[in-house]
Design brief:
globular, 7 helices, 249 residues, 12 strands, 31% strand, Aminopeptidase
């Protein structure tokens, strides 16, 4: 894989020209930055081209974030090279670093351990079960605050919410989002209840979602991974391309 080329394509298709996936979503552009303002989710500073006076640009975005909330999403290939230090100097706080991992969908092998069943979630009852799994896995869930957005996206086919059951019991859940016209799909929210870890359930959920992306013709699948998820995705065939860090006021 040509890492630099894939990152450049990712930036061009998903950060410089992000698709509007829901009614009411907006994109704002300044001379040097791109901001995404989803209708039902916090806004994000998606990209800074490194131009202009970095101090002035970053200060302006910090003021914007203070007014609107949300985050500046930094990637380790962003410029200038000292961007994280500049963001901190402007009063932004760094969140936990995550591995930006990516795979081509076609070579990814299917994987379903015995006793595991994976279902798509489209209705409220299944959604509540998914929320319950994520609360048990993470101690919290962000899905609750974007419920309408996710269920609408599931109904419209922009994403698929999935729940893995082990012998009929909810064990793991997450979602895949399809970014139309980009060639990229993405994995979000994957979490496994403690009692079901180490049994291949999360890996099965990744493989299932990869198959969904390949079936729709998406070449690439990416994820922002925690240290717990990174080795599982690496075994599944993903490569770490960068590190990403959310910066907030």
């Amino acid at each position: 894989m040509d890492t630099a080329a894939v990152l450049a394509e990712f930036d061009a298709r998903l950060r410089l020209d992000p698709a509007l996936e829901q009614p009411g979503d907006r994109v704002e552009r300044t001379a040097h930055t791109v901001r995404c303002l989803p209708a039902q989710a916090p806004p994000t500073v998606l990209h800074y081209d490194g131009g202009g006076d970095p101090g002035e640009v970053i200060a302006a975005e910090a003021r914007w974030l203070a007014e609107h909330g949300g985050e500046w999403k930094y990637y380790s290939h962003d410029r200038p090279a000292d961007l994280p230090e500049r963001l901190r100097a402007a009063g932004l706080r760094a969140g936990e670093p995550e591995a930006f991992m990516l795979a081509e969908t076609e070579p990814l092998a299917p994987y379903t351990p015995a006793g595991v069943e994976i279902r798509a979630v489209t209705e409220e009852t299944g959604y509540e079960r998914l929320l319950s799994v994520q609360r048990g896995a993470f101690g919290h869930t962000r899905h609750a605050v974007i419920r309408d957005r996710l269920l609408a996206g599931a109904r419209e086919g922009n994403l698929v919410l999935v729940l893995a059951l082990v012998d009929g019991e909810p064990a793991c859940g997450g979602r895949i989002e399809f970014h139309a016209g980009t060639g990229f799909a993405s994995l979000w929210g994957g979490g496994t209840l403690p009692g079901f870890r180490g049994r291949g359930v999360y890996r099965a959920l990744v493989a299932h979602r990869a198959a969904l992306a390949a079936a729709r013709g998406y070449r690439y699948l990416y994820s922002d991974c925690s240290p717990d998820s990174e080795p599982i995705l690496a075994r599944t065939g993903f490569t770490r391309l960068a590190t990403t860090i959310p910066f907030t006021i």
